[in-house]
Amino acid sequence: MGNKVTDELLSTVRSIVGSEYSDMDIIRALHLAKNDATAAINIIFDTPNFKSKELPAIPKTPRVSRTVASNSSKRNGFENQNSNSNSIVREANATDCSVSDSGEGFVEEEDVSRESSLGDEWWFVGCSEVSGLSTSKGRRVKTGDEVVFTFPLKSSSSRSPSPGKVFGKGRQHAAGACSEIVRFSTIESGEIGRIPNEWARCLLPLVRDKKVKVEGCCKSSPDVLGIMDTILLSISVYLNSSMFRKHHQNSLKAASNAAEESVVHPLPNLFRLLGLIPSKKAEFTPSDLYTRKRPLNLEDSSGLRASLLHVNKSTNPSRNENEVENEESISDADLDNIVGVGNCSELEEMDPPGTLQCELRPYQKQALHWMIQLEKGQCLDEAATTLHPCWEAYRLADKRELVVYLNAFSGDATTEFPSTLQMARGGILADAMGLGKTIMTISLLLAHSERGGSSSSQYMSHPSSEDSEPSGMLDHCQDPPKKTTKISGFDKLMKQKNILINGGNLIVCPMTLLGQWKAEIETHAQPGILSLYVHYGQSRPKDARTLAQSDVVITTYGVLASEFLAENAEDNGGLYSVRWFRVILDEAHTIKSSKSQISMAATALVADRRWCLTGTPIQNNLEDIYSLLRFLKVEPWGTWAWWNKLVQKPFEEGDERGLKLVQSILKPIMLRRTKSSTDREGRPIIVLPPADIQVIYCELTEAEKDFYDALFRRSKVKFDQFVEQGRVLHNYASILELLLRLRQCCDHPFLVMSRGDTQEFSDLNKLAKRFLKGSHNAQEGEAKDVPSRAYVQEVVEELRKGEKGECPICLEAFEDAVLTPCAHRLCRECLLASWRNPTSGLCPVCRKIISKQDLITAPTESRFQIDIEKNWVESSKVVALLHELENLRFSGSKSIVFSQWTAFLDLLQIPLSRNNISFVRLDGTLNLQQREKVLKQFSEDSNILVLLMSLKAGGVGINLTAASNAFVLDPWWNPAVEEQAVMRIHRIGQTKSVMIKRFIVKGTVEERMEAVQARKQRMISGALTDQEVRTARIEELKMLFT
Amino acid sequence: MANSNLPRRIIKETQRLLSEPAPGISASPSEDNMRYFNVMILGPTQSPYEGGVFKLELFLPEEYPMAAPKVPFAYASEPNHFYEEPNYLEGIDWDSVFIPNLSGCCGEIEVRFLTKIYHPNIDKLGRICLDILKDKWSPALQIRTVLLSIQALLSAPNPDDPLSENIAKHWKTNEAEAVETAKEWTRLYASGA
């Protein structure tokens, strides 16, 4: 009772209710009413016997709401059922009355006899002694007196119309008491005491949810009670079978475990209080974790900082699309600090099967051995009969001999045998990029592939029947009552599992790597050994058999997510209709965000073995790991509550134990080597040709400098305004835009004049077609709203001829013109400004309602406002690049040119063509086939010397070892991204020495970005508070504008 | 005055109105306030207003031509009173103040007849019932298009959507007589003063 009752309130209430009520009564009422005097007065008057029991004793006319006769007969039936259960003490002495005090607004814990008619549902768990505390003075209670428990209800529940009639749903106090005190009373004396808090805490939620009910009787007590005397009670606890139901209703898609924040589960606590000893103990319990954590604390702190990762968590105001711009993936070194680079040199090696048509390096053989070992675990049959280490088995005292399994972490209870089949079998292969994760995985596929569930099919088809029950384990299952607890929903779930077709290996990868996986498997596996099927594209068949037939199915995350979201994912013949032998997530950090569809989709796959391949198991946040663990089913870490409590929170609060715990979780299931890892003899596991990394500093020409300075001054004015207003972080997106322009200007001033969105409809014919199609479609109905064919043709013709025209709003020449679906042309800005609503409005010309998405960017010659061919000038950076390429031309050595801006790649095409340097180009606009074609061309055609590539399109996994030079034309915020791009060429398979050149324009924002990169490195590895990070971020931006 | 800050669009429109005026229409900005226009519309031929010269005033609000709610246009009770900024709210007979429905108010042009005119869609204060001046406003409309619309309204009175109930009634019950009155008024008040 936290709220203090003032004397003033007390006297106010007293003045109304009179001296009949003691101070204590009034204080009690005030507490119940949360110090609202009026409510308190109402409580006192509305509650007939509100007066505390110390004053005139409780009215002796018990408002008993049931007849003794029916009651006892029911009870007899119940007792018969329990007659073998010697632990039921209460029966001997139970008196057959109980106060159903309708005047009191508390839940009346009903006498169990009342409930005995529902006996089938109620399972006797056990009984125990409880030391109640007397709250009364002068009352008497005899040994053997039955006591009735009164559970306070939640304040929100409403007054029940039938007091005391329904179990657990009695009347609640008028003012809505919400205390956690469980009182008990006898028919003779009324309230006599309360039970200890630890009991109350775990009983309350369970009783409220009607999961548990309690009965009790007095075992011993002083003859006359005094306040705080001990009253020894014997209580019996019954469990409702609905408790088990809930667990099975977790549907495939209800994986929203993030909401479940609590880690204190009443049921395990209750079992503990009852002194139940698990017939089979969990190997792994929460208390283990707590105790294990202690020694961890004593270990040396190896300079690990808890703020390594979460720094950007709360300081990222533009955490949406803009995120790419400022994403903070962590560097390799930090990653190694967090997850630890295993000392793997001790691992055994395993020779790959002869069907692998290439040599494995020693460290790759180690990985193969490690993976095979992890997959083995226990053999499936054994696994099916071994209790999952997070679950414990309890035999209830009920004569029906029910065995209940309790998850020590989640508090879930079930009667289904939780086997280790549900456990992780697999792990994370987190070798750094370029070590050949793909080939290691292929060797695993070749070394051991079967069909999913094959060895456990028997178990799966008879999950709870006698023959599959682990013999000698527990003998509960022959009992008929067990059947009654089988829930229909659960049966359905099992059936679903049964109809899954056993399949082989499923590889999920980003779309860009689909071809590479296929190619690598085809090259490295002996032909005919692995049947391969690529499950991709609109026309992919929905046939589980096709999927299951192939030894290896390759698909993309996109396909996975869309099949996951489809209705009846289990039945429709897609990826979810198959029980996979093995699922492999390539670039598994794709699922790092645990709330994303793709993460849930991956987790929902049914598979016996699960693998994550990723060079970056943590990209931004420690949370990234959680999603992987959930996919891998590494318990209990797939439960957000536990992860959050024991890892995430401590980590964020700077408690190193969080990090240590992650490391100890990951240690057995993750293998990570880097290029600098060494083997047993201390030699590097991989020897790559040397890489020469240089920075080329360019100077702006006079003209460029003028342009840059003008742009800079303009941007700085805006930025300074934001600073003055203290709104830097609120205008993050605008500031990034300012910076973007400046950075582009360093590449080439033309870029600043470019428009970003002309790609799609640059083809006029396409545009005309779209219009005409639109008018055709709308022929019936509202044909008059649609522009006439002739008009559209006129507009298109006008556009084709490049006629200038003017915007009907600003009456100027169009600036960034858009076309409405009604074929009217306006400046984008004018049109949007004319709308009161940012997303839609009327066409100013014809008043047709249009929305922003319908707008088409009117085509112009190119995305540049000027004719870049005709007016071509080389920027100093382009000159420097050409100089480099010219030097390489005769060596025949191939180069990759990276930029973040495809527009810059557009520009670069001009000087490359003019200088007869043949090139190909790879950017995000290419589809899969086009990409493959480009990559093939580049590696095979010796005439093609240059690959123009957008920094992001290259993305992940692509192997570009045909090139031995990389030119990074513009700096990225985070050096890790640059590094990743460059590593495309500096990886296994590279035979020539590698040259990497980064271009930085002196005296510009680029140079300062370098400083920020360095600073960021320090920030990531130093411990900063949120506030400091905020300031740091502003400081960082200020640095850029100096 | 705020002329120094006049949007380019207004300047451009003004230039065009002056250099290539629409037939039968003249509009020139006031010297004090470039947003305030003195307008003259010739009564269209074959209408009761033929031969008349009608004066109007027109004002471009701050938000012109874009959308924004604004202080409603207030009319003085005296029809020929040229209101002057910024005191035009003084001496207003608030009972006769016309408060447009703000929900459809889009920074439209404010315009009214200063010359007395007998027309079912124009009331005795010179206010004009024309949809493009209210909820059908669009920023693609211009001073020129507005004035052309008014000119067209003179050619084709629409007694079914009246602003002036009495005149409209007159028009509907006895059109010939109403037209005569209109001609009479044109002679009396609009004969090229």
Description:
The complex is a heterodimer of chains A (1042) and B (193). Chain A has 1042 residues and is α/β, with parallel strands linked by helices. By secondary structure, chain B is α+β, with helices and mostly antiparallel strands. Chain B has a single domain (2-190), classed as Ubiquitin Conjugating Enzyme. Chain B contains four helices and four strands. Chain B has helices spanning 8-19, 143-155, 165-173, 175-190, and strands spanning 25-29, 36-42, 53-59, 110-113. In chain B, helix 3 crosses helix 4. Chain B is globular, with a radius of gyration of 16 Å. The interface between A and B is medium-sized, with 15 and 11 residues.
Placed side by side, the strands forming the largest sheet of chain B appear as 1-2-3-4
Q: Examine the secondary-structure arrangement and name the CATH architecture of chain B.
A: Roll
Helical coverage of chain B, percent range: 25-40%
Topology, number of strands of chain A: 29
Q: What percentage of amino acids of chain B are in beta strands?
A: 5-15%
The Rg value of chain A, from CA coordinates, equals 36 Å
Distance between the termini of chain B: 30 Å
Protein name (chain B): UBC core domain-containing protein
InterPro entries (chain B): UBC (IPR000608), UBQ-conjugating_AS (IPR023313), UBQ-conjugating_enzyme/RWD (IPR016135)
Family (chain B): Belongs to the ubiquitin-conjugating enzyme family.
Keywords (chain B): ATP-binding, Nucleotide-binding, Transferase, Ubl conjugation pathway
